[in-house]
Design a protein that fits this description.
binds adenosine-5'-diphosphate; 321 residues; five-stranded antiparallel beta sheet
Length: 321
């Protein structure tokens, strides 16, 4: 449990229904300061709804939420001063340059001294890697450049929290790479809460993840915890001969949690789930080889990654890569 002041976003049984349809049910999120927090879920899971509630753009049906200690319903003005937001599909005046757009944004949102605005615009352009495109018209920008400009806009007033709705979803691999790199770079300046349906993005930049499905949280943890909690390394052995005696012996080992046996005509395949990889590495194959009634045809190991954990938690619902 984190002390309350280290949390940037905290929600308590936050819920939203639209005409009786539950878009979000009883959400309890805890987003720590300086994390890059991936909010992962398939389309329709309730991610945008959550973001709208956090920004005070929609009212919760039940529950409550606070950002930086401010209530999302009562203090939404205070929140908007401190939070930068990038919507899913940012729109721009196409005939303006990146610098002009940032100047326009700064006019409304920059709260530092007015004579520092140009300096701040330059800093922000550097932060998102767009110095060389500052004076080009947005009209010709790629998807990745548009998203980076959007992050620059959201970042102009030194926000304590950046909320990004699917920042990389519609981008090609290069654009996605550039946006994720900018997010990494911003880590030292702010906390980033971003939604995505793309698992590999989460694995690449986040240190914390919450997985949402059908408006409900199915997991919330650091990436390491999530991977460790799956606790699963599986060894596969393909055997010929009479494996029954050695099967009993392997199953009795304290580091073996399960053996799944797939018998065949001639060959038997085992999937051995272990809790202690070191012990398994030292002893599993030796143990089986010591039994002269069986011959080992194949031996392999599979470590579960975030994708397996995600599929396990969401029951295999589709997601992008
Ligand atoms: P995500 O961002 O994860 O794709 P959303 O939050 O947009 O999911 O949507 C969650 C659910 O709520 C979906 O079933 C969607 O159809 C529904 N929903 C979202 N906004 C509205 C709305 N304004 N009116 C009615 N239903 C909505």
């Amino acid at each position: 449990m984190q002390p309350p002041n280290s949390l940037v976003i905290e929600t308590h049984d936050l819920a939203k229904s639209y005409n009786g349809i539950h878009a979000l049910r009883s959400l309890n999120l805890r987003v720590p300061k300086h994390s890059i927090f991936g909010f992962l879920g398939p389309n329709g899971a309730g991610k945008t709804t959550t973001i709208k509630l956090l920004l005070g753009l929609a009212r919760p049906t039940a529950g409550s939420a606070s950002i930086l200690g401010y209530d999302v319903v009562k203090d939404s003005l205070e929140i908007r001063k401190r939070v930068g937001y990038l919507a899913q599909d940012p729109r721009y005046y196409e005939h303006m340059t990146a610098r002009q757009i940032l100047r326009y944004t700064a006019h409304f949102f920059f709260r530092g001294p007015q004579d520092k605005i140009e300096e701040r615009i330059d800093e922000t352009l550097t932060l998102v890697g767009m110095d060389d495109k500052a004076d080009r018209l947005v009209k010709g920008f790629s998807g990745g450049e548009r998203q980076r400009l959007g992050i620059a806009q959201a970042q102009i007033n030194h926000p304590d929290l950046l909320i990004l709705d699917e920042p990389a979803a519609s981008l090609d691999p290069q654009g996605r790479h550039d946006v994720l790199e900018v997010m990494e770079r911003l880590r030292e300046h702010t906390t980033i809460f971003y939604s995505t349906h793309i698992l590999s993005d989460v694995q690449r930049v986040s240190d914390m993840v919450a997985i949402l499905q059908h408006g409900q949280l199915v997991a919330q943890a650091s990436i390491e915890q999530l991977l460790a909690s799956s606790g699963t390394t599986i060894y596969t052995l393909t055997l010929r001969g009479d494996a029954s005696a050695i099967q009993t012996q392997v199953a009795a080992q304290p580091w073996v949690s399960a053996i799944q046996v797939m018998p065949g005509d001639d060959l038997t395949t085992w999937q051995v789930t272990v809790t202690d990889e070191t012990a398994a590495e030292e002893r599993l194959l030796r143990l089986v080889l010591a039994d002269e009634r069986v011959y080992v045809r194949e031996f392999g190991r599979k470590k579960y990654d975030l994708e397996n954990v995600f599929l396990g938690l969401t029951g295999g619902q589709g997601h992008g890569k």
